[in-house]
Design brief:
The protein has four domains: about 150 residues, no CATH class; about 90 residues, Beta-grasp domain (Ubiquitin-like (UB roll)), CATH 3.10.20.30; about 110 residues, Beta Barrel (Elongation Factor Tu (Ef-tu), domain 3); about 110 residues, Rossmann fold (3-Layer(aba) Sandwich), CATH 3.40.50. It is built from 16 helices and 20 strands. Strands 13-12-15-10-11-14 form a six-stranded antiparallel sheet. The chain has a five-stranded mixed sheet with strand order 4-3-9-5-7. Helix 4 crosses helix 9 and helix 7 runs antiparallel to helix 9. It starts with a helix and ends with a strand. The relative contact order is 0.09. Bound molecules: FE2/S2 (inorganic) cluster. The site of FE2/S2 (inorganic) cluster (FES) has 13 residues, from loops.
Length: about 500
């Protein structure tokens, strides 16, 4: 029945509604504190499991209330609020659901009245007993609101404000807020859809609409074939969701070999010192030519005339930012890079021979230091010195995907206080329930890891200079970490 169905929520929608991670929700289910059926939870069970939850204080409610307030900045409102067309479509769909519900209730009401009339004419005492049961049941149903009523009302409101997308064949899910494009929302949620230009030219972000409707939010000259048109193909980079529930068939990269080698020219946006020995190099790709890579992968950077003889200078670096960060690519460059191939590039950065707005060629991506697909094991990251760069990208991605039960970060430094982004790690630690962070000296690392009995049941990601990483990897294997769960990036 519609009245019952409307109070069941998928896990991702329930997590979105409560403003909590899906992992936190799954933990309550595993611990037996929240019943679930076929991947769904009931709104009233949800409210019982979170009695302390103040709906007014949940992020989602805040967002929708803020949208309603006139004082809310126009720019932000345009970004968060869906278009008039999307709002109208979603309200219309909800109106149809309500009308159907009303029709159903009217039929039940008529049935109930007919039953009452028959009972009135029926002989007592059996009829009296039945009538009393019916009256009591009706009074109960119409009295105090059920525990899940608030939750169901909030869900109905959020279904209008944001669209829920299910991806086939992977089963991944994400939400589209306001009029953001399907591509941007998918990348922000940690998905790895196929794409290229990001502005409706190359056609690489093609997806098939299996159910629901989309709307173009920017123009595109890309020409679909007649067969593609007939099969409802759209470009994710220029379309947003019109319906509140959309099912898309999307080509996603599952492994490094699914990502093609690319060569693009990016511009230096900023260079700043993270410590006396580490510089942050921030590049921005052109709007029409972005770099597609998986979190944890490396690229080759090249600049022209970086040295006195005017020849090209190259360096190979892991991308420290998340692929969900659109056009921004961040690198951590160490002073006096001992790797011969990157030493000149490092010198150019530290000697101010690369400036803001300079061109830098980016070639790649390389490497297979990426999150294991579909694993839900706890994640343990071990970064040694600037091995933190690829680990940073992996952690941001893992947080966006929201699939791991817990995340532990050990950042070991060869110099006292060498953890050059301590505030960021502390912020993760404070903001995420299942996140732990331990800064430590590199010599203390073996003993600390030996005391962690959960390593063998975790996916372990280890990154840093080869001299430190290789012996540690051997120790981890000897301690029982299965080889396929140990991922190593040594430079
Ligand atoms: S058309 Fe190129 S990424 Fe969408």
């Amino acid at each position: 029945m519609l009245a019952t169905m409307s109070q069941w929520l998928t896990l991702s929608r329930a997590a979105h509604l409560l403003g909590i991670s899906r992992v936190a929700l799954q933990k309550r289910i595993r611990d037996g504190e929240l019943p679930s059926f076929d991947g769904m939870v009931a709104a009233d069970d949800l409210q019982r499991a979170w009695p302390e939850l103040d709906l007014d204080a949940s992020g989602s409610f805040e967002k929708t209330r803020a949208i309603r307030e006139d004082a809310f900045a126009r720019r932000l409102r345009e970004r968060v609020l869906p278009s008039q067309e999307a709002l109208a479509q979603r309200l219309f769909a909800q109106g149809q659901e309500l009308a159907e519900l009303q029709r159903t209730l009217t039929r039940y009401h008529a049935l109930f009245e007919a039953l009452e009339a028959r009972l009135a004419a029926a002989p007592a005492p059996a009829a009296d007993e039945l009538r009393r049961l019916l009256d009591e049941g009706l009074a109960k149903a119409l009295s105090a609101p059920a525990p899940g009523d608030d939750m169901a009302a909030l869900d109905a409101m959020l279904r209008v404000m944001s669209a829920h997308i299910t991806v086939k064949p992977s089963g991944h899910e994400f939400f589209v807020e306001g009029s953001e494009t399907l591509l941007k929302a998918a990348l922000s949620a940690g998905l790895t859809p196929n794409y290229g230009c990001g502005n409706g030219v190359c056609g690489l972000c093609k997806a098939r609409v299996v159910a629901g409707e989309v709307r173009a939010v920017s123009p595109s000259d890309y020409c679909f074939s007649e067969a593609e048109k007939a099969q409802n193909h759209v470009l994710m980079c220029v379309c947003t969701a019109l319906s509140s529930d959309l099912v898309l068939e999307v080509l996603e990269a599952g492994a490094p070999e699914d990502i093609p080698e690319q060569r693009i020219v990016a511009k230096v946006r900023r260079i700043d010192a993270l410590s006396a020995d580490v510089m942050r190099l921030h590049l921005q790709t052109p709007r029409s030519n972005r770099l597609r890579f998986l979190a944890g992968q490396r690229v080759t950077l090249g600049i022209r005339a970086g040295v006195a003889d005017g020849s090209d200078v190259h360096g190979e670096y892991p991308v420290a930012s998340c692929p969900c960060d659109e056009r921004n690519l961040i690198f951590h460059v160490r002073r006096g890079d001992r790797r011969a191939a990157s030493a000149d590039f490092s010198r150019c950065v530290f000697e101010d021979r690369i400036k803001v707005a300079d061109d830098v060629s980016v070639w790649g991506p390389w490497g297979s230091f990426v999150l294991e697909k579909n694993s839900v094991r706890p994640l343990v990251f071990i970064a040694i010195d600037e091995g933190f760069a690829p680990v940073n990208s992996l952690i941001e991605h893992a947080i966006a995907v929201d699939a791991a039960e817990s995340i532990s970060l050990y950042w070991a430094s060869s110099q006292p206080g060498g953890q050059y982004l301590p505030n960021q790690c502390r912020a993760w630690n404070e903001a995420l329930d299942e996140f732990s962070y331990l800064p430590l000296a590199v010599d203390d690392l073996p003993a600390v890891l030996a005391a962690n009995s959960a390593l063998a049941a975790s996916d372990v990601y280890l990154a840093g200079v080869v001299e430190r990483v290789e012996p540690l990897a051997a120790e981890l294997l000897a301690a029982g970490v299965p080889p396929r769960q140990l991922h190593v990036e040594a430079f």
